[in-house]
Write a structure and sequence with these properties.
The chain is built from no helices and 15 strands. The chain has 206 residues and is mainly β.
């Protein structure tokens, strides 16, 4: 197998110690590393074999960095797979995403027909998976159950607003408010690495 750092920028290949092999695709010969079988050998095995790169040869991944892993097989007759060379890109991401409610405003009083709007992003090379919101009516003492379309839910009743931008950078939820009631809206975001935001974005109003 071979590992390239920053494939979109034609980055360097992993030598087993560091990303110090400079070469444009295809994979240079010196970048191919031998995998080992999981729980046993790999050479000479018949049928599918589960394999891995030995721990000592695995890179220390850098945050917000894209990598490309390429794998091939060689049989006992030294035939190298060509049509079955597999490539997988991934982003190593340890930075939590961020979400902000932009409407309603920080004002304590808002219009009954007001929409809920917000933004979300994942700093660096990460990508947002989804945004979720929940709404509590303090006057009723319940959370909004979006399936039942009533305030009969609990604190676990998160639901997705409309992904207005397609990448969650802008999102929106229409809602009809009861005049005089006190509400709280919470928004959270999860990225494609499974990381949630460090804290909710919150708006309280009546």
């Amino acid at each position: 197998m071979a590992i390239q750092e920053g494939p979109d920028e034609d980055g360097n290949w992993w030598s087993g110690n560091e990303f110090d092999i400079t070469h444009s695709p295809p994979v240079p010969d010196e970048a191919w590393l031998d995998a080992v079988g999981v729980g046993g050998g790999i050479n000479g095995e018949i049928g599918p074999v589960t394999w891995q790169l030995a721990d000592a040869s695995t890179p220390t991944w850098s945050n917000n960095t894209k990598y490309r892993v390429t794998a091939r097989a060689i049989d006992r007759s030294a035939n190298i797979s060509t049509g079955t060379v597999l490539t997988q890109d991934f982003v190593f991401d340890t930075s939590p995403p961020e979400v902000v409610i932009t409407t309603p405003s920080l004002s304590n009083y808002n219009q009954p027909s007001m929409e809920i709007r917000g933004t979300a992003n994942d700093p660096g090379a990460g990508e947002v998976e989804k945004v979720e919101i929940r709404i509590k009516d303090f006057t009723v003492g319940q959370f909004w159950d979006n399936s039942a379309q009533t305030f009969t839910g609990d604190e676990n009743d998160w639901f997705e607003p409309t992904n207005e931008s397609g990448d969650w950078s802008l999102w929106i939820q229409t809602f009809t408010w009861s005049s005089g009631n006190k509400y709280e809206i919470n928004a959270r975001v999860i990225d494609k690495a499974g990381l949630y935001c460090m804290s909710y974005s919150t708006r309280s109003f009546r």
